Amino acid sequence: MTKTDKLPDNVRPVRDRHGRIRYRFRRQGWPSKYVQGEPGTAEFHRSYAGIIEQGPATKKSAESTRITKPRSLDDLWRRHKATPRWKKKAARTQLVYSQVLDRFMDRIDRKGRRYGERPATAVSVAWLDGIFGDMASTPGAANNLRKFLAGLMDEAVRAGWRADNPVRFTQKYDSGKGFHDWTDAEIEKFRDKHALGTMARLTLELALNTAARRCNVNKIERDHIVDGRIIVAHAKGNNVTSVPMLLTTRAAIEALPAAPIRFLVTTQFGKPFSDAGLGNRMRKWCDAADLPHCSLHGLRKAMSRQLAEAGATDAEGMAVTGHRKASTFAYYRQNANQPALADRALSNLEARRLVQPSKNGGKPSV
């Protein structure tokens, strides 16, 4: 079955760790459960009816605490969240980290036990390789889980629970190219579809100008524009950038109706988008412009590329994008026009040679 609109409310198909399609009931305030059987069968309807009859989680079950086994992964996760290293992480980093590891801890192994109940000393390279191997279809998610587990198992080493970190003996998937890097032609195509005065156009210009993530673009306020510069507090790395406002961005802001609204990028009701909401809205705007492969994050890569093509050093580019590591910025600018960069580099070298004094007469060397 592929059409989710034929499923009951709050039921969606999911792929388990063995690659099998199962059907999960998820609703806020209700226990998450798998619906037994195949859609349309009597077993499926009975299972779904049983979930509905059980109703939402009671206050008692919501407040009940699971018994944490000493030196288990649950215990290690609890211990890690109490450390200064965890408390220093940005709130959004903590959220993403927790979402990934909480789901991991609640996975069920073949013996019906939660992963979180496994002793930290029983975590082996072979066990981890099996988990990461099952995630081959989502290498990005596998790499994220591996990264977070590596940090968690470091805590076990620091606590003296074990002498090694088995996660660091596993291999990560090739990162690939990630989000599509918008070409200049694609940026112009989006502009042609979404004229000045639209929220779509303003979002594009702000995202491109600041090279900010969606969780920052939706939080840019009018007060963040100071003396012709846009101030952005980047969510990752706690880095603050101050970039000059481009003429294209200024035109997009001035084209909007004057209104005493705090945030620049807002819904039709004047409210700021949520992080996911802005991503979903940008998806619709890109589809309307016949750019199904483009995304909001791809504009961050596009600006990195444009900066490199304009002759910016990595340090100058990072001052715009907010990257803290030159290696990360280099990854983002990897699609820069290499022949054009080579032409400019050799042109600069040739100009340098022309003004170098010669050793045999003071004439410029050629």
Give a verbal description of the structure.
With 366 residues, the protein is mostly helical. The chain has three domains: 4-63, no CATH class; 73-169, DNA polymerase, domain 1; 184-335, Intergrase catalytic core (hpI Integrase, Chain A), CATH 1.10.443. The protein is 46% helix and 7% strand. It is built from 16 helices and six strands. It has helices at residues 42-54, 59-63, 73-80, 84-87, 91-105, 125-133, 139-158, 184-193, 199-210, 214-217, 247-254, 275-288, 296-309, 314-321, 326-332, 338-354, and strands spanning 11-15, 21-25, 33-35, 225-226, 229-233, 240-244. Strands 1-2-3 form a three-stranded antiparallel beta sheet. A hairpin with a 6-residue loop joins strand 5 (229-233) and strand 6 (240-244).
SSE ordering = EEEHHHHHHHHHHEEEHHHHHH
User: Stretches where pLDDT falls below 50 for ≥5 residues?
Assistant: 59-64
> Quick one: how many beta strands?
6
Q: Name the CATH architecture of the largest domain.
A: Orthogonal Bundle
The total count of helices amounts to 16
Average pLDDT: 87
Q: What is the CATH topology of the largest domain?
A: hpI Integrase, Chain A
Class inferred from helices and paired strands: mainly alpha
Total number of distinct structural domains: 3
- Helical proportion, percent range: 40-55%
Terminal Cα span: 72 Å
Binned strand content: 5-15%
CATH superfamily of the largest domain: Intergrase catalytic core
CATH class of the largest domain, named: Mainly Alpha
Strand order of the largest sheet: 1-2-3
Q: How large is the radius of gyration? A: 26 Å
